[in-house]
Amino acid sequence: MAAERFAVLDGWRAVSILLVLAAHLLPLGPNPLHLNVAAGLLGMGLFFTLSGFLITHFLLGSTNIVDFMIRRFARILPLIWLYMAVVFAIHPVTGEVWMAHFLFYANYPPKPLIPVTDHLWSLCVEMHFYIGIALLVILFRKKGLLLLPAICIGFTLLRVVNGVHFSVITHYRIDDILAGAVLALIYHDRLGSALRMLVTRTNPGLVLLLLLISSHPDSGFMQYLRPYFCAALVGITLFNDKTVPVLNHHLMAYIGAISFALYVIHPLLASTWLGSGEDWEKYAKRPLLFLVLLVCAHASTFYYERRWIEFGRRLSCKMKNRRSLWV
Question: Which among 9, 141, 169, 204 counts the fewest CB atoms within 10 Å?
Answer without folding.
Answer: 141
